[in-house]
Amino acid sequence: MIPFSPPRMDKKIADAVVEALYSGWITTGPRTKQFEKMLTEYGGHAATLCVSSGSAGLELMLRWFGIQEGDEVIVPAYTYCATANVVVHCGAKVVFVDAGEDFNVSLKAIEKAITLRTKAIIPVDVAGFPCDYDTINALVKRSDMLKQFRPATREQELLGRILVLSDAAHSIGGQYKGKRTGNLTDVTVYSFHAVKNLTTAEGGAVCLNLPPPFDNEAVYGKLNIASLHGQTKDALAKTQIGSWRYDIVEAGYKYNMTDLQAAMGMVELGRYDADMLPRRKAIFHRYADTISNYPWAQLPTFETPEKTSSYHVFLLRIRGITKEQRDRIIAGIFRREVAVNVHFVPLPLMSYYKDAGYRMPDYPVSFDNFSREITLPVYYDLTDEMVDTVVRAVVEAVEEVVR
Ligand SMILES: *Cc1c(COP(=O)(O)O)cnc(C)c1O
Predict the structure, then answer these.
(1) C-beta separation of 95 from 103 below 8 A
(2) What is the tens place of the pLDDT at every residue in 378-403?
(3) Which of 270, 285, 319 delimits the end of a domain?
């Protein structure tokens, strides 16, 4: 069986984790702080806070911005549940918008969904392909949008407009107009979950890139405290002589990253551009080159003059099929000992959101993308021969069902 997404694991990672284990400091400490600096340098944004997951990072930022009951947050219908669930946690209303042909959120749909209550937009770089951030950033800064924005907290007043919080769970290393994700909008959140391009088993990072008058270092300090119960000193600082006294300045969260995770992350980030991205890129090109010969194949866009994907997962669509045919094709691929997936089942199809009143027919492009989509595996240890096996399984399974 060709698995779908095993993490890249080797002695270098194991050694780094063992070294951290014996260092005398296993939770948030020097390694986490060093990993944060590496991530800031890599993304080119202003400051990075490492957290326990991408979901935690998204929620931390919504809470920081004061998102609450009565507010609306625009979320793609075509994403993983984390993007929307964090909005629900804050008591705000999720406003789903449809996808475009490239799987990313439709910019026209965003514009139509904005109301007087809109406080944030969470675009998702689906499969690692960055959204059109210039268009999204220009939209929230348009004079009519600025005029109708109703700030309710100090942070909202300082920003003076809708926050653009990018869900870059798939897209670390992806580029738009020569800049990396992290540096493309106000705030970007990475996920380091086991299936993501860069993994720390579980983990995430908040990339701060807020415009003036915000001081990103000061915001980092505030978030750092908020991610550790609102405690003014972390455990490491409290070990210094005479430093036992601390205060709790807010009822914060327990969202910190451990140094064991950071140890893994530093090894991975250190070789990410030299090693991980080129391998993923080669796999994407091999899929594209071989599958494009088939008239039923609709390939994803992953490179344009302006954008480069982080090559997270390969979202193949089959032309002219129903959801039932797609499901049969997937069964056929699994019978050939190849694991594939579907990214994503749109959230309005999920019980919780369906019961909350969202209707799938309101998001026709998302449904069409989903119903014809099969996600092909992309990971470091997937060899060219394995790629060819995947393609063979897909071709046979499609031709079995479509003929
Ligand atoms: C994985 C993922 C997340 C959540 O990341 P975690 O680190 O698992 O919390 C958020 N959004 C999208 C699109 C994801 O795929």
Answers:
(1) no
(2) 999 999 999 999 999 999 999 999 97
(3) 270
